[in-house]
Every structure is written in structure tokens, then in C-alpha cells.
Amino acid sequence: MGTPKSFVIRTFGCQMNEHDSERLAGLLVADGLVPATNDADADVIVLNTCTIRENADLKLYSALGQLKALKEERPDLQIAVGGCMAQKDRGAVLERANWVDVVFGTHNLASAPSLLRRSRTEGPLVEILDAPDPVTSRDMAPALYAVRELPFAAWMTIQTGCDNTCAYCIVPSVRGGEISRPLVDLINEATMLAQSGVTEITVLGQNVNSYGRDITRRRPLFAELLRALGEVPGIERIRFTSPHPKDLRPETIAAMAETKSVCNQLHLPLQSGSNRVLTAMRRGYSVERYVEKLAAARAAIPELAVTTDLIVGFPGESDREFDETLEVVAACEFDLAYTFIFSPREGTRAADMGEAFVASDVIKARFERLKDVTDRSALRHHQARVGKREEVLVEGPSRRNDQMLSGRTRQGKLIHFPVTENAARSGSLVSVDVTYGAPYYLMGEMNEVLRAPRHKIRVPLLST
Length: 464
Fold this sequence. Notes:
This protein has about 475 residues and is of the alpha/beta class. The protein has helices spanning about 15-30, 55-75, 85-90, 90-95, 110-120, 170-175, 185-195, 215, 220-230, 250-260, 275-280, 285-300, 320-330, 360-385; strands at about 5-10, 35, 45-50, 80-85, 100-105, 125, 155, 160, 180, 200-205, 235-240, 265, 305-310, 335-340, 390-395, 405-410, 415-420, 430-435, 440-450. The protein has 3 domains: about 5-125, 3-Layer(aba) Sandwich (Rossmann fold), CATH 3.40.50; about 140-385, tm_1862 like domain (pyruvate-formate lyase- activating enzyme, Alpha-Beta Horseshoe), CATH 3.80.30; about 390-450, CATH 2.40.50.140.
């Protein structure tokens, strides 16, 4: 028997893409391939793409351009492109990069291994489905065999697609409408993940708050899901992303507050602090309604850390409307904000608002002003943690300093602390005394190991 073929997966985009890459890695391993450490050692290179922002196109085709020389040196090398950009561009990927062997979309991830096998004899293949199969899209069994970057932490997809119509978002076009997985399947998956040593689950969906509405035909089941996951033995931490503010219901807030394993962390995308802009974005809530729901969550959940998303320069955004955003963001005091410059995506309503596009120099100036406000809030929150003792799940050595360990608090904050003689291993639960707070991270000193790792093995997955 010859040496098995090896693979590398490069991931662009959101957590959904990261989880798709983990699932794809599991499928490739099941098909007899082994992970490689870099492109030069790989027999198969898969680019799992994103299409949320305009520079996603540039990233993909720049990466493919760099791989062209490698393909010329090694004709047997297989290059595959999957994910949202592949779903959008379809056969155009091969037209722009004819050295690609396989193109597959968001609805047929499980077909990738067979497409790669077929392309060795049939030549370049493109397979894009226009919609997910309602049965197979609910079957996420490959997730159980995913090759995870952190063996003790797992993504868990509870729904695919999105039924919202946000003017700037292309996700419904490339991911389809909402399809929820049965609750019993999710509990079974969480149980099996726990038995394999996973202690932290991050629940994924385009709008997790609406989970189950397509099943019940009346109301979502997200609160019930959180409570049920909280009963799974071995699962110590539960996080979720992304919720939609219009669908954050009182029962979900109550489930977060009353379920011990649900972390005191909430990502609640605001996008704009102007009611007119929110209406133009088709977000479905007002600033006042958003602030009301945020206040309810903070009142119910002690020490809740709140993060958000913000878009700068949506078409038609005036100076006054941007100032309104600054005022709302300052008042909300977010722990962290992911701030994006508006990027028109072909196929969205906002892309047709060209006459109202904001000048790039104006957007850049606004972006810096907004970043100053969000950084100040983040710094205040982190400085307020100094002197506190945090429960930290250790991820491993710091990427920038191997004399430091890194981990996450229950609030989801990144914290670094020195390696000691009794250094905790990846997957350990430790207590850390916070000594310093910066806008994007904390520093501290380890106090004690609370629990040793529970996972058994770690298989590397290259993700960039």
C-alpha cells in the first residue's frame, strides 16, 4: 500500500466556514487522506471561501494565483475551491483559474471527497446545488468526526441558511433559507462530543434565535435548546453566534441566566445607531428596541460581556446619522466591536444603491472615529477585570510568545499568562488572577489548575 495522500484546507470567512472546514477535514480523513503541515507537502489543497465582503474575491483569486506556480511544478497536485464564493461564482472560478480541479458549493460539502476522486480521471469538475436537500442538510453526522483545531472545543451547527432580508447581506443567496436540525439530534451530537472529550460547544447559525421556527411553524425553540444542552454531562461551556436582535426573546435571556453552562457572553449585532439607516438595511428593529433588549439581558445575566457588529458607510449614511451611531455605541459600552466598512455585494439590495454610496475617504475617517469609541469601551471593561480571578479554559501556547499560555474566560475574553513549572496543558481549566487589561486582551498569573484536560488526541488542521 502506498503513502496516503495528504491535504491542506485554507479557510476564509466566518465561524460557519471554519466549522465547514473542520467537517470537510473529517470527510477527507475518512476517505483515506491525512492532514499536511503546509502547501508544499500537500497532495490536495482546498480553499474554503467567503463572499461577505468585496475583498473576498481578491483574497481567493490572489491565493489561486500563488498556487498556479505550485500546480505547474506538480501537475498531480489537486486544487479545490468550495464555500460561498464558489457558490456565487460557479463555473466562473474555472474560467479565471483553469488550473483548479474541483469547484463545489455550500450545499454539497459532503460531495468534495468523491469529486476529488473523480477529477483525477475525469478532469476539472464543477458541482453547485441551487438549494440544500432538506434531509441531508439536517444530517450533520460528519461533524462528529470533524478534525478540530482545538479538540476540546467544538462548533455545532443547529441550522443552515437564513430567512432574513438584510439589504447588505448575500448569505441567503449562497446558503439558502433556514433549515433547523431536530433538537433530539443536536442533544445526541452534544452527548457524543462530550464523550469524546469536548467540554465547550459553540452553537452556530445565521440567526440562532430563530432556531426551530421552521419545525414548529410558530415559535423558535432556541431557549429550549440552550436548557437541554445545559443538561448534557461533560459540556461545561456553551456559547452561540450569531443571534439577531429582533428575535432575542425573554425566554432566551432567561435560559442564558438560568443555565449554568451557558457562558455570560452575548454577541448582539447593532450594525447602525440610526433608525433611518436600520430601516434601509432592513434590520427589523429600532435603536430603542435594541437598547431595551440589551438592557434586559444585562439585568438578567451577571457580568454579561456584550460584543457587536457595526457597518460604516452604508449607502446614504449622513454625517448626522453616523454621529447617532457614535452616541449609541458609546452609551451601549460594548466589550468588543467588530467594525466593517460597507462593501457592496452583487445580488444584494444595497449593491443597487450606487448613487448613495459614501465616499471612501469619508468612510475611512468615520471608521477611525468609531474604532476610538469602541476601543475606549473595551479598555474600560478589561481594566475593570484587573484584580479579579477568572476561570480560564487553556487553548495552548501564545502564538506570539511560547513562554506564555493563552485561554478564554467565561466571558470569552482572551487572556495570556506565564508558563510555570506546573504549566497547564491545552484543554485544562485553570484559575487566573488578572493583572492587566488592554483593549483586546487580558494578562494574568495562574493561580491553580481546576481540572485536567479531558480530550484524548489532537489532529492538526491548517487553517488560514
